[in-house]
């Protein structure tokens, strides 16, 4: 996650993170939300994108 944040062109004002364990990211406030994908649409959308990306990546590895 830290690599993804570092790659952003615009620094986020605040991070919403699904779960309750995260390594603190210096300078960016964050909120962890247990089962956040059921509460915040942005977390749900990010979860879908991540799972789709992972599925595509795994398919490429086994092609």
From TrEMBL:
Main EC class the enzyme belongs to: hydrolase
Name assigned to this protein: Ribonuclease HII
UniProt-listed Enzyme Commission number(s): 3.1.26.4
Listed GO MF terms: nucleic acid binding; RNA-DNA hybrid ribonuclease activity
Record organism: termite gut metagenome
The keyword Hydrolase belongs to this UniProt entry's keyword annotation: yes
Domain RNase H type-2: 1-63
UniProt entry keywords in alphabetical sequence: Hydrolase
InterPro entries: RNase_HII/HIII_dom, RNaseH-like_sf, RNaseH_sf
Pfam families, alphabetized: RNase_HII
Keyword hit for Hydrolase: yes
């Amino acid at each position: 996650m830290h690599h993804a944040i570092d790659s952003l062109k615009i620094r986020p004002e605040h991070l919403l993170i699904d779960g309750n364990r995260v390594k603190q990211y210096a300078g960016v406030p964050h909120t962890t939300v247990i089962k956040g994908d059921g509460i915040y649409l942005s977390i749900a959308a990010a979860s879908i994108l991540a799972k789709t990306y992972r599925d595509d990546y795994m398919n490429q590895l086994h092609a």
